[in-house]
Here is the input.
Amino acid sequence: MVYLNVNRRWLRILILSIMIVGFLLLLINIFIIDNTMNLNNLVKDINKGQMLLLAQSNELKINNIIKQFGNVLDSYEFDKLQNHNDERLKEIIKNKMDPIYDNIHVFETQFDIMKILGQMTVTVVDTFMYNGEPIVPVRLKILYDHIDRFYIVEGTKTFTGIEKDYLFKDINFEAFKPYDDKISWLVIDDPPDSNFTTPRKKEYFKRNCIIQAMKEDLSKDIISRPFVIIATDADEIPNPQVIDEFQLGKKWISVITRPAVLEMMWFSYNFNWRKRGYWRGPHVLPGDDVLSGKFDLHIHRTNRGKRMAALQIPAAGWHCGYFLSIEGIMNKIESSIHTEFNKPEYKVKERLIENIKIGQDLFYRTDDDEQVDLYNYKLLPIELQKFHLEICSIQNVSASIGLNVTQKYRKNSQVSSCFCRETCTKGILDLEIPDFFSCRKRINFLMEHYGDSERKACVAVATDIPQCGKCNPDKCPVEIEVT
Here is the structure.
């Protein structure tokens, strides 16, 4: 009986031990599986954009990479990694992780481990079409040190089908010489496809011809990944200070993963006249998303919904509309995609001269955005100041009529209620809106950085952003406040 009891006791102990061991093995297995899943998830989650964003953080420097991948490395390899041997790290990670990556090929095709460590720059390319605009050499001079490659398209015909006797790039070749090492010229004939017969479709075709040239340059290492594409017209000059923010650790690094609109100040004829609206045609696109066909170089110009859904970058440049001679303005009217304006009454020389002198809209549009205010050109970068003097001389108008205008940069400008307390409540003003932060912050920004009055800033924001619509003083249901 005693023997049987002893056996039963040992049996219980044995069973309990087996259960404990089994439980421990289960925990270890779960831990391993969990680590493997985390590793797999880490790898799969690191797409081209997320990898770069992670690289900004000190948490993903080399020691932390070691921690992340340590469970697939032996002790010898671990020691090598601790010595910060970048080439060895690159080799080990690639060899160990290839089976997990399958078809992702992150290291092989785009971002090797050196880039994860932050030892990289974002390539920025500038793309636009050229039709003899005199501001283009100025654009190149301003942007040369901030752009890696310029892709400039010139058609052998205008959008309206007018044959050119000579290409402007050849006529003005001397002006381009200082920047030639960074320029890829694309001379494009009209498309043979009958689907591209209208001026707007021809513009779409010619703008997107740049994509193939970029693919070829990538294969030749003329440009490199990661890269972003600035898509503008020739007279839309990006702010170089904004372009510099497209790098790792900078304010606008997210342009490598999503479209962004470059919001520009808008001028007519010369820098004497600033339009009251803001220009939002120019945009920036992630390079690989364009090459893959996810985006083209034109759609954000024509699709307001896509523009509004994009990241909005304020104070991003200068739109210089019709900065041309009288003859140049008439030629632009005749060659533009806006055929609705190609009418005799808009091409009367005497009328054009008068419009430039007084800032009258070229096509007599009455929208508030199209109206102008005097502007002090000396508030601009020096190269734009010089061009202002040149174009005013060509137009035979005074360059100094706006010199008494001061820009009202008001620190800590604060909106009150947009002169409409009944509808423009604190809840509306502080409503968080993606990419604009909030109605209040957007209005304050326009007042501080553009010198807008509270009323003008409120109208602009309420018009642009539907969620802020109740803060439009022009549509206030009761009499506006007097301040």
In short: The longest strand covers residues 123-129. Residues 408-483 form one domain. The chain has four domains: 1-36, 46-119, 121-404, 408-483.
